[in-house]
Design a protein that fits this description.
This protein is α+β, with helices and mostly antiparallel strands. Helices cover 30% and strands 28% of the residues. Strands 1, 2, 3, 4, 5, 6, 7, 8 and 9 form a nine-stranded mixed β-sheet that branches. Strand 7 and strand 8 form a beta hairpin. Helix 2 packs across helix 3. The chain is globular, with a radius of gyration of 18 Å. The mean pLDDT is 97. Bound molecules: coenzyme A.
Length: 248
């Protein structure tokens, strides 16, 4: 049976490079998310500064990482009342670091396609909870990006969350994973990631032109992009689902 060991990007430069490659390939098609103000200004620098929080699940036999999870320590006043801002809020809070951290903010889990559906992402979530406990934090909060929501961009998130499959389980596989891992839904992060860029930016990502103002679906996006010809801008506001985990 394959055995996995939890390491971090701080353990070795080779591991850091491998983790960066896994993350880049998992998120390649959603590159427009790199353009939220928080991502653009702080993300890369924070991953470097807090390398010991960037989880790498390593196959003990091969020494290669098979799943990675990014997280940042930050101060969270009340995990039962999380704001509309989600991913961007955690990154901005961590970048200020003006109050001692009491919480780990999960920002993403990436598993290469060949290793999916083996339960590895759930091991990464568990590793985040263990890490929060080791640090003496209250727990982990994660603005979760339901992976199949992109097939239903027009559906409001509160409706989507309630969908179930034939077995009565959550319809969305990634929400299902978080629920199976012991997470509790706290609410919606209605403005988790906000990207506002010129229309030409969105046309490049969509591979088509937008000649009218209105809402447009873009591959992988969880909600439509709102295009406004008058201002020449397109605005994407990504909704996520807030999950809270107590430290393990
Ligand atoms: C979303 C993503 C991280 C999920 O990775 P994963 O490793 O396949 O997810 P999980 O660990 O939850 O695997 C769960 C599935 O494996 C199955 N599985 C197989 N063996 C298992 C085991 N030993 N333990 C638990 N689950 C197992 C489960 O049954 C489950 O499927 P089900 O819910 O339909 O029953 C991955 O698809 C990915 O990297 N996507 C691109 C990036 C992304 O969207 N990340 C999420 C937003 S942050």
């Amino acid at each position: 049976m394959t055995r996995y060991v939890v390491k971090t990007r701080a353990d070795s430069p080779a591991l850091k490079r491998a983790a960066m490659a896994i993350e880049a390939s998992a998120w390649n098609a959603l590159g427009y998310l790199n353009f939220t103000s928080a991502h653009f200004k702080h993300y890369d620098e924070l991953l470097e500064r807090f390398a010991e929080f960037q989880i790498c699940l390593v196959d003990e036999d091969t020494g290669y990482p098979v799943a990675v999870g990014c997280a940042l320590p930050f101060f969270c006043a009340d995990p039962a009342k999380l704001p509309a801002g989600g991913w961007d809020w955690i990154v901005e809070s961590a970048s200020r670091m003006d109050v001692a951290p009491n919480m780990l903010g999960g920002l993403g889990v990436s598993v290469p396609r060949v290793h999916r559906s083996k339960g590895l992402a759930r091991l990464v979530i568990k590793a985040m909870r263990d890490m929060a406990e080791q640090c003496g934090f209250e727990g982990v909060v994660i603005p979760v990006r339901p992976t199949s929501k992109s097939m239903h961009p027009e559906v409001p998130m509160h409706e989507y969350i309630a969908w179930t499959d034939d077995n009565g389980r959550a319809y969305d596989p990634w929400l299902r994973s978080h629920l199976a891992a012991g997470g509790r839904i706290v609410g919606e992060a209605t403005r988790s990631m906000v990207v506002e860029e010129p229309i030409s930016f969105w046309e490049a990502w969509a591979g088509r032109t937008f000649d009218k103002s209105g809402d447009y679906a873009i591959d992988g996006a969880l909600a439509p992009v709102k295009v406004d010809l008058k201002s020449g801008m397109g605005r994407y506001v990504e909704p996520n689902v807030w999950f809270a985990y107590q430290a393990a």
